[in-house]
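Quick start: what a row looks like.
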Amino acid sequence: MGNNPDTGKFKFPLDLGAPVGSLEGRSPAVDNGLDIPDPSRYYSREFMEKEWQHLWPRVWLIAAVTADIREPGDFTVFEHGHEEFIVVRQDDGSIKAFYNVCSHRGNRVCQVDRGTASSFTCAFHSWEFGCNGTLNKIVDEETFNKKLVGHRPGLTEVRCETLAGIVFINMDGNAPPLKEWMGLPEGYLEAYDIENMNLVRHTRSEWKSNWKTGVDTFYESYHLPHVHPQTQGAIEEFSQIDLYKNGFGRMIMWFGIKSHRHPVEHERDLDEGVKVMLRDAGIDLATYSGTVADTRRDIQIAKRERAKRLGLSNYERLTDGQLSDGWITGLFPNVQIGMHAEGIFIMRFVPHPTDPDRFFYDNMLLYRHVDDPNYAVPAWMAMPDGIDVTGETRPDIERWSADESPGIGPVLIQDYDLVAHVQRGIKSRGFKGPLWGDQEARVRHFHREVDRYIKGEIPPANATEGTDR
């Protein structure tokens, strides 16, 4: 199936014409069937408990980014449902992760989002733990029987591995190594040079739906013209969809061109959204003479030339499409990453500890700062004024409750408003289950992998102590 941006004759799926086996090439077809799942998976407490028994303790979860913990003693706290983890940089440069719980009485050892420390002291009885998890001090230790504390019970460590500037944890002591489990093609994440980006904003807002309702919404572009009509002048919603092993997936969306649904009345009829993307690429609109058919390619050329001038060598590992387009990448089970040359945004769909009708939308924005007037934060990041993008300061986590409208930009607010209505409708007796079409192939692929865990199709491993909850 061909796609011609010059004529606007687009077909689904988008065909980029990249060689099979290349980073941009289409993945082999995957048959996930046509099952219609019971909608109770979105609101049942029983299904939520099954996820805590069979899914969450066994998968690799994104806990942090290395940019947030660059120096020894730098730490950040990762919240996931009823569990919390301290992720901390060690003196030798390595990274370790621990359950955020004191081995004495179970108090949260660390009660701030992030910081720098030489040790962690529990606020309940002042037991002190080193950044490597060892128990350094027990107050009035002589009053404890050595049979209780003689083994020096430190913080409980959790498996932790790093890939491409992203820190993952896994509660399962027998789960496969991260690289073996990772479903993306070799070198996919590494090409973006994430470890040299700065964490410039971190938001966490409570949304009124199940976490899977959130994933479903972001895992397809079928809804764009209906929920986000403002994107029609600058994004083609017909996507290349790629399904990978272990529930991973991707959609490549062409940016910098008009949607095939958006009429082109004149070859110079450049939408404001396209103009913004041209400016982001460093193109002077006052002298720009390109047409609607030229914009995407001109953005690629401008970014490539700018990268050479600024010495951004990582651009040499990126295809032209990666310079202009959105490589919207799903990491099973609960992450979507918008991949761009200048920066990425990591979206985590974090389950609520107790309520299947709530989840936390946790969004980390990373940006490759360059001190040049021709290079700035892309508009798609919806960055508020006053945000430090240089990496000199570590941002606090901005939080909003379910009853507050989060400051996350107009496009995401549309999704925030939408999912609450979807969650209510899913519970209706009139709804028999989702009917996923070809444009929603990533959604079906994701749920098929969830079911593999819930139904026991993936043989269980022996989980580490404290994960069988």
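That is the whole record. The two ends are 48 Å apart (CA to CA). The domain at 1-58+184-469 is CATH 3.90.380.10 (Naphthalene 1,2-dioxygenase Alpha Subunit; Chain A, domain 1).
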